[in-house]
Amino acid sequence: MADQICRVLRDGAVEGEHAPALIIKDCTDAPLGHFVFNHIFTRLHSYVSLTKSQSKGVVLIALSRSPSFYARLLNAQGDVLDTSDNWLRVLDCYTDPLGWKSKLSESGSISKVLVENSVNTTLCQNVKDLSNLTSKVIELGREMVGEGKERFAVAIDSVSEMLRHAPLSSVAGLLSDLRGHDQVSCMFWLLHSDLHEIVSVAALEYISSMLANVEVIAQVPNGQKFNSENLSLIEQNFRRGRFHVRFKRRNGRVRLMSEELSVDQSGIKFVPVSSEELVIAQSLVPKVQFNLQLSEKERDDRAKVVLPFEHQDNVKTTQIYDGRRSLSENQHENKHEAADDVQKTENPGNGEIIYFRDSDDEMPDSDEDPDDDLDI
Amino acid sequence: MSSLAPNLLDEALGFDVATSTITDRWDGCRRVILIEDSVETSGAFVLHHFIKRTLSPLSSDVVIFLSFSHSFSHYDRVLRKMGCNLVQQTENKRFLFFDLLKFQCKEGNVESVTMALYGKVHKALEICCVPDTKTKVLLVIDDISLMEVATNGSSNQVLDFLHYCHSLTSQFGCSLVILDHEDIYTSTDLPTLLLRMECLADTVIKAEPLGTGLAADVHGQLTILNKGVSDVVGKKRSKSSNFHFKIKENNVEYFYPGSRT
Asked: Labelling A83: which of A11, A30, A352, B17 has CA 20 to 30 A away?
């Protein structure tokens, strides 16, 4: 499914239509959105560098991670990067988003801000001005692909940051302007859903054609103090999550799919839900030391056992256990058992549970009704 | 040096126990740590622990301390009992204290005042972080809720300030420790400031009273949640953990639930 998302983004836009757009949504309890974003970003970057995709370059608007972080990320994937990399442009809204550093360095309080040169970076010093941001993105994209018909992809690493600096209407405006631009091949952005009102999240979901939602895999009871039990649930949520994807087709058809994702040192993995459950079921069984399975014969034998206190519907009068029996009754019963033993040897297929009281002193449990389950 | 032996808190934070010096332990640990405490259980002792660790005589690391809640003499008294002389460390330029008790923004100048404060912090870092030295810097903010009060409740300005402090972690390789209170935010509104800080943080340390009520031998529990989001390049990520603590006169004992009779 993550592959499918990557393929849709790789194939890009159809002439005269909006570019496909993906919103990646996560929450504080399952903070794995960044991993999904990084995964899709690196995949798209490698498609672009191998010229397998419609887009000929990626413009990354970095708001919550430094450009050097992405340089390290791509290097870790084995992609060789240098400033002549013609597939990536980073618009750095992380280092100095409000222009404080440049103002301070102009007044001489601090030394000059150095632009990180690990990747091809352009500094943005006023993220509040979104129309300027839009034109900068297009400028950077054209720098890579030229003014012709070639297209580029746009990635925004956290729209949540953007929403802190500008109202929803302008952010939505920026996203849909870029999506509608004829040189944009595809777009994707990250959103932390619980930082915003539901309406804002819904509004941004409308602008996108795909939604990738990371949800918690283990529900932690709300408002509970931490203990070792729910700590392991929280721990799980930091490593694994449910991954719901919603595709919206051109004709209005909506398709929903689910997967699970897990993150470890080697990276991010997506697994189909069903197979994951199967693996768990298989891995649990051999750990039990006892044989829990019954053979066909054992099952038959078990069905034949007549439980004590069960109404036996035979000729004998039904004996009701009252907890106190006289000596004569006991003797009488012993005779019965002797007869039963004979019967049993004749018909070994019939199981029976026989109950002897240890002594006459034993009293019935005071808190239970001895006649509770009798069918009289 | 026995007081510097790593304890449960150090282990939970992933300091490498095997290496001998504190500098090595901090190495590669540039990250954001959020301490959330509550009215009944103060998390200040975790801050003291960080200060003491960083100012250990085995390293040359520096603490830049932004205090909105207490004066210098308060921390000096606490740390002196723990065996760390802040006056001396200030003279050695290893403890830089910003007294912000009187920090107050007026209507309309919030941004310029917070920007000026950021400028001072940035300048201090420039002086401390001389290139080609192993000096690591720990930037501590005690506490962020009082900064919100000083900026007339403008949480957005506080977040701008924090974002710039966060950018320092990648520029200078410093670590950032923030203290905040968990129970001062109403449940009806979105507790955006706290949630945003949790998003920003790589490690969240929660100090809470015991779920089972008060106990004489246990003063509360610490929960350490390691998100390890910033580790893309396959660094070791530590697990989350939960343990109890008892604050004594000059140190704190950490132990697993049920391990004490």
From this structure: A11
pLDDT score for A185: 93
Q: What are the sequence ranges of the domains in chain B? A: 20-207
Q: Closest approach of chain A CAs to the CA of B89, in angstroms?
A: 24
Domains of chain A, by residue range, sit at 2-286, 294-376
**Three-state DSSP string of A239-282:** HEEEEEEEEECCCCCEEEEEEEEEEECCEEEEEEHHHHHHHHHH
In chain B, whose CA is at the least distance from the CA of A34?
B229
Spatial distance between the Cα atoms of B184 and A138, rounded to a whole number of angstroms: 44
Instruction: Quote the minimal CA–CA distance from A6 to chain B in Å.
Output: 20
- pLDDT value of position A336: 56
Examine the pLDDT at A372 and tell me if it is beyond 80: no
Chain B positions contacting chain A at CB under 8 Å are 111, 115, 118-120, 122-123, 126, 156, 159-160, 163-164, 167, 170-171, 190, 192, 195-196, 198-199, 206, 208, 210-211, 221, 223, 225-230, 232-234, 236-237, 239-242, 257
The per-residue pLDDT for B233 is 43
CA–CA dist B66, B46 (Å, integer): 15
Assign domain B20-207 to its CATH superfamily: P-loop containing nucleotide triphosphate hydrolases (3.40.50.300)
Give A166-216 pLDDT, tens digit per residue: 999 999 999 999 999 999 999 999 999 989 999 999 999 999 999 999 998
Quickly list DSSP for A306-336: BPTTS---SSSPPP---S---HHHHHHHHHH
Listed by number, the residues of chain A in 18-77 with a beta carbon closer than 8 Å to a beta carbon of chain B are 28, 31, 34-35, 38, 66, 68-69, 72-73, 76
Cα(A194)–Cα(A96) distance, integer angstroms? 25
Q: How many CB atoms lie within 10 A of CB B185?
A: 17
The CATH code belonging to domain A2-286 is 3.40.50.300
Query: Which single residue is written with the structure tokens 């939604």?
Result: A211
